[in-house]
Every structure is written in C-alpha cells, then in structure tokens.
Amino acid sequence: MPHKNKQLCKIRTITTFINLEPERKNWKNAILKATRFCTQLSTVFINNEYTVQSLRIVTNPFGEYLDTKSLEAAKKDLAFISQILNAKEMPAIRIRFAIGEAKTNKEIALLPKLIKEYGDLCNACVNIDINEYGILNNDLVEQSAKVVQKISLATPNGEGNFNFTVNFNCPPLIPYFPASYHEKSLGNCFVIGLETPDLLLTSLKLYNETAQSSNHQEKFHGYYQSMHNALQYHIDQITDIIQHENLGNEYTFSGFDSSAAPSKNCSSMTEIYEEMGIDYFGAAGTVEVSSLLTKVFKSINNTNLVGFSGLMLALTEDIGLAKGTLTSNFDIRSLLTYSAVCGIGLDTVPIPGNTSIEKISALMRDTGTMAYRLNKPLTVRLFPAPGLKAGDITTFTSDDLCNCLVLPVP
Q1: What is the C-alpha separation between 290 and 302, in angstroms, rounded?
Q2: How many other CB atoms sit within 10 Å of the CB of residue 244?
Q3: Binning pLDDT at 50, 70 and 90, where does residue 2 land?
Q4: CA distance 126 to 103
Q5: Burial of 386 (C-beta count, 10 Å sphere; 0-12/13-18/19+)
Q6: Angle at 140 between CA 74 and CA 123, to 5 degrees
Q7: How far apart are CA 81 and CA 385, in angstroms?
Q8: Beta-bridge mates of residue 100
Q9: DSSP summary character for residue 282
Q10: Predicted local distance difference test score (pLDDT) of residue 76
Q11: Cα dihedral sign, 210-213-215-221
Q12: Contact, 11 vs 52, CB < 8 A?
C-alpha cells in the first residue's frame, strides 16, 4: 500500500528532556549522554528506512541551572553550553537546544539579549496561567509582549522570535520548539515528533480515487479513516522499533506528538484542505476540516500522546499558508477562529513592526482565554517585522521560514 511508504512519514525530531544542575562540571556529561542517545536512536530509525530530520535537547527551567544574577553571567553559561554542542564529538545531524521555561520577571527580561546572541541554542518559552477567577496573568502577558518587541528590534528581520513563544495551558514534553519545556519530576525521557503532511495527502488522494459515494457524511468518515489508518500504521511501526531496540534505561519513552508538523520541505497543509473539497484554506468549510484533522491526530492508539497532538498552522513554516496571505485568504481573526477546533494558536505570524505592546498583549490574552476556556494547549509566536507595515512582504532569510504578507492586527 502506498501509505506504508516510510518516505511519506518523516521523523521531524527525537527530543530528549534532561535535567541540569547549577554545577557546570556535570553539564557536558548530561548533554553528551542525551546527544549519543539521540544519535543511536536516529541510526536505528535510518536503518529501518525512516528519515530523521533533527535531534533536540530540552532542559528544566533555565533559572534552575544558569547563573541569572546578571546578563553577563548567563551569557557565559550559555557560551559554555554552546562549546559543548559544537564540540568535535557531536554528530553531523542538526542539534537544537531549548533552555526551557523562563519563570520570573528577571529571567524573562534576559531573553532578548540571550536569543540575539545564541539563537537556535537558546529556544525558550513563558508559561502564562490564570487565577481562580479564570483571568490571565496580565503582568506576564505584557512583559512577554515587550520581549517579542525587543527581539524583533535586536535580530535581523525580527527572526529571533522564531526562538521564543508564549504558552497557554501547555503541558511539558512538547517536542517542538520553542514551546518545549521540562520538569525535573519527570526525569530523563524522550518524545518522537513527526512530519506527516505528505502521508496525509497521499492517503486522501488514494481514498478520493476509489470513493464510491458522494454523501458528505460518508466522505468525511472516509477521509478520517484513511488518514487515521495511515498515521496509526507508521506510529505502530516506529513504536515497534523503539520497543525492540536495546536503548538502555537512561531515558524513558514518553510517547508521540502526533501533530503533522509541516515545513517548507513537504506538502502544505493547504493541499490537504483542498483534497477534502475546500476551495482554499480560509474558505467556507475550513473550520469543519480543521476539526476533522484534529480528531485524526487525537485518535491514535497503542501509545501515549503528548505535547500538542493537534493541527499545526505555522504560517511562515508552510509554503501554502504563506502564499494564502498574498491573496488575503485568511487573517489573524481567522487563525484564532480555527484555533478553537485545532492546534497551536497564532504561530509564526508576521505583524507590523510598530504594533503596540497593548495590541500584542490583547492578541495573547485572546489566545490564552481560548486555551483555558476550551482546555487545550495554544501558543503565541509573533514576528513584528521591523520597518514593515500591514500588506508588505517579509524579507526573512532563515532556511526555516517562508516569506509572506505582514498581517494587520485589528
């Protein structure tokens, strides 16, 4: 069966979650152990014909091990970690590093300059909670909005915001950056994240080629079943590989994040919508399909589902979504609406460079309110584009990002 083709289901990340203590002398051993484990498992997957795209390491909150008494002290500690990660004994495959959660105002204030200096070795997040009345912590919201604005001004084209996100109702053990964070009580563990738009699209095309009924309910049930079967097949295969390999007992397997995790190098999620009869992503019917896709990602059996395990609509990481901005197929309000029935929130969304702290904060509060009201994990990762206004086209140079229209903030 075509959907069993392992090239259609890529392993986006093997993500290990580790604990670092304040003593620097132990960091190298902990990081090297995690890297060697990821490399060993990566080799096993490759030998079983699965592509592995990246290895990732996530730590406990960085305030628990970095010296945050001053910016210079924190930078020295990160420089030490950078040396470890760039050592000769490290593998050639891409390694990304997340310093975990910023928990205090002082820690949050350090992020713009740390991210400017260390970029992809300094992925970080802020978790924002609610009080007993269901009201978000607006002090943290506003401080996070200021961080977004400062990062946009401190890094070329504002691209440093690729490494910072604000989490609402997000659990630990998310394998995708920068929403990842770890808690000491969970011990050393690992999670698998996949890239599956090619797989989902292939399964839908096969179904449409053989479908006998034009009945809407039957078609949508067929769409669901075809995507579920394809995704379940590969998750079962990968689980079987993990269970039958002698990986030692240093890292506990915590499960999969079943999200499709699109990128520039695979089919766009917009193609999946179109294959299910939507004229274009953003047209009437988009909410219904978003809900169906979320149901597929939540339907996986025989393993633990962790992280988002939902529909990701990462605007500037998906070529189809990026192109959709050029024809005004959707706006920020639309993306928030779709978040009610799907995954990640407002992710990698370019906005005008002069957007006020008040408006950025309001977008965060809207997203956070939905996350807690609907009991789902949502994030905000905005890219204020310095010098650009709504309707301008971004000038990103990162290999991870697609250029698109800057969206207005209503």
Answers
A1: 24
A2: 9
A3: low
A4: 7
A5: middle
A6: 40
A7: 30
A8: 124
A9: T
A10: 96
A11: negative
A12: yes
CB 174 within 8 A of CB 306: yes
Whole-number average pLDDT of the chain: 94
Rg, Å, the chain Cα set: 21
Chain center to CA of 97: 13
Report which residue type is found at 343: G
Q: Please compute the mean of the pLDDT values over residues 80-97 and round it to a whole number.
A: 85
The alpha-helical segments, DSSP class H, found in 56-168 are 71-85, 105-118, 138-154
Both tokens of residue 187?
């011990």
Q: What is the pLDDT of residue 1?
A: 64
Phi, psi of 201 (to 5 degrees): -65, -40
Q: Which tokens is 340 given? A: 């009610």
Condensed to tens digits (0 to 9), the pLDDT of residues 337-396 reads 998 887 778 999 999 999 999 999 999 999 999 999 999 999 999 999 999 999 999 999
Out of 2.60.40.10, 3.40.1280.10, 3.30.70.1400, 3.20.70.20, which CATH number does the structure's domain 1-274+297-315 have? 3.20.70.20
How many residues comprise the chain? 410
Token pair, residue 57, equals 């390491």
Place of tokens 């093997």: 14
Q: Are 128 and 167 in contact (CB under 8 A)?
A: yes
pLDDT in tens, 254-274: 999 999 998 888 999 999 999
Dig out the tokens for 87 from the structure: 């050592």
- Looking at residue 254, its amino acid is S
- Sequence-distant (6+) residues with CB within 8 A of 257 are 174, 175, 176, 191, 192, 193, 194, 305, 306, 307, 308, 309
Q: What is the pLDDT of residues 131-176, one digit of tens each?
A: 988 899 999 999 999 999 999 999 999 999 999 999 999 999 999 9
Per-domain residue ranges of the chain: 1-274+297-315
